[in-house]
Amino acid sequence: MFYFLHRRFFHSSCRLPKKKSNAEQRWLARQANDPYVKASHALNFRCRSAFKLLEIDDKFRLLQPGIGVVDCGAAPGAWSQVAVHRVNSAGTEPTSPMGTVIGIDLLNVAPLDGAHFLSSHDVTDPATHAKLPDLLPGGRAHVLLSDMAPNASGFREMDHERLVGLCLSLLDLAETILRPGGSLLCKYWDGSLAHHLQDKLCLTFESVRSLKPHASRKDSAERYFLARNYRKPVSG
C-alpha cells in the first residue's frame, strides 16, 4: 500500500513542465531583448505601450496640466499613468492646474493615484457614455485616448475590421463628451478600411494624420490616427 501511494505522490509532484511552443519561445525571447520592455520595468510603467504615448505627446503636446482625458481600453493602465503625470491629475505639481483622467475597460484595472477607472464597462455602451459627464469637470474631455484592440481571432482582415469598428464607435463617444477643439488619438491596424476610418474622422476633425511611433514594433500593422480640433457634427 505504501509503495503505490508513494509512487502516485512522486508522479504528481515531479511532473515535468509543459514544453513551450516555438511561438511562445519566440515571444519570450523578443520580450527579453526589447529595450522598451526593460525601460518600462525600470520606470515602473505597467507595460511598454507607455512609450508610444510618451513619444506622440512629446511631439504633439496633447496632454497639458489641467485638462480632462478619457482613456478608452485602459487596461493595464500604462497610458493612464502617462496621462496622470502629464495633466497633473494626482496633484504632484502644486503650482500647476490639476487635470482629470478617466479610464474605461471591460477588464479590471488596478487602482492608480490620480485616475478614476470604470472597470467592467463597455466603451461602446451608451450607458457608459452617460456616466462620463458627471466625472469630468464641465462634463467634457479635452482628449480621448484609445489603445484598445479586440481579442485576436487569427484572421488579420477580420481583426482589422473589428478594430476599425471600435475606432468608429469613438465618434459617438466624442459627440457626447469631447470639447470643441479637442483631440482623439486611436490605434488601428493597417488594412483595407484604414482610408474609410480616416475619411470619417476628417468629417468631424480639422486635421487627421497617421502615426507610427518608434515604440511600435516594425513588423506590426499597428498605427495611430491623431485627429485634432474637433468640430461637433450638426444634427439633422
Write up this protein.
The structure is a single chain. The protein has 236 residues and is α/β, with parallel strands linked by helices. The protein is 40% helix and 21% strand. It contains eight helices and seven strands, in the order ααααβαββαβαβαββ. A seven-stranded mixed beta sheet has the order 3-2-1-4-5-7-6, with helices on both faces. The radius of gyration is 21 Å and the shape is globular. It starts with a helix and ends in a 6-residue tail after the last strand. The relative contact order is 0.12. The N terminus is likely disordered.
CATH superfamily: Vaccinia Virus protein VP39
Distance between the termini: 83 Å
Name the CATH architecture. Answer: 3-Layer(aba) Sandwich
Number of strands: 7
User: What is the CATH fold-level name?
Assistant: Rossmann fold
Topology pattern, helix = H, strand = E: HHHHEHEEHEHEHEE
Helix and strand content put the structural class at alpha/beta
Number of helices: 8
Strand arrangement, major sheet: 3-2-1-4-5-7-6
